[in-house]
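Go through this pair.

…
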Amino acid sequence: MGLALLRPSGRLRGPPRFTCLGPRTVQNPSYSHTLRRPIGLPALRSAVTPAARAPVEVLTQFGKAEPLWREMVQHGAICSRYQHYSWMSGWWDHIGSISKASPHIAVLRDDAGMPVLLLPLVRKRVGPLQVGFLMGGKHTNFNLPVWRPEYLKQPAAGLNALLHGLRHNGPRLDLLVLLNQPATWEGVENPMLRAPHAASASRAYSGDLQSDFEALLKECMGGNSRKKLRQKERQLAALGPVAFQRARTPAEIDRVLAAFFQQKAARMREQGLSNAFDAAGVKEFTRAAAHDIDPDTGETIIELYAASVGGTIIATFGGIAADGRFSGMFNSIAGAEFRNYSPGELLLANVIRMCCERGFNKFDLGVGDASYKQVYCKDAEALYDSVIPITAAGQVAAPLWRAGLALKGKVKKSDILLRAARSITQIASRKAET
């Protein structure tokens, strides 16, 4: 039965269903049998006041969230760089606002009215359902709320109150589909994973940094690999002066962006794949984020790096940084004439060197399996998906959505199915171009 056959039957009435987590197991085979299941609603003693009908505020205009959002981050709320207001507002302005989605930003407050958790959602119609997705979509590698654990001392009760508030406040939501959520961030448990969840189809790769880059390089690479990398840099130097630099001036940023867009497009055509940067608003978002300064950090929202030989850019790298962590977002390399020199590997090593010099302690290369990621990012971080029903219609749709996510995971874990899926994607991409 497809989602188009479902009909929403209104909001659930009576006690909220998603509350404290008990020891029972989830019966849906697509979800881990060890996961805890919500049972009944207990009294919410200290996280929120149960007598207050609306400890949750739903903001449906993006700009109205800015003062609260920035204040939470500036006062030490936990979130990834992707959940900073400046990153999300750029995404909304250039990508989200031209999609068929609406802001649905939920703010949970404690007894004293202090905001303790902000969940940045967009609301989108899927068939007859109103579905809440985390802002940023496929452009974010780590999806998290913005929360203050020192005040959210009962995460399970806080989650229950949040879901109760979403059920009774703001435009109707039938279902939450929350993808690629890390279990912890900065060593603190993600409160959204108090809801039932299953492993995402892909993992993310990260690694620890240290102040001495040469010592880190020895830990990550064997002697022969380090020797080959240096040989390739020397071979490049025979073609002209080699430079690894961060783009800082507007002119430098525009030059690196132009090289990146050209190299990425050429590479995707060569592989017969669609180019994600051709989608509406993506180039505009990337360009704006590379130029705009984030007041929370004093740096550009997206940082750009380039490797060049004799003034020609042969590789690019883009990422975001905050709280001692650098997250890689995208990269590119020039045509076949430079590939034997491994310009992407050389640039990556130098970006990590610069991160070590800046005193960063963590580096990640985002979601998805690739052999180059595991050189410096030894930690394969599991991510998790939650499908949480809000209304009766959502209760019907949730198992179907979970089954779809489970199928996606099976495809990615099977070489045969993955090759078949990529072949279909390549054929569809070629047809779209003709």
Observations:
- Residues 250-271 form the longest helix (22 residues).
- The chain has two domains: 3-202+383-433, 205-380.
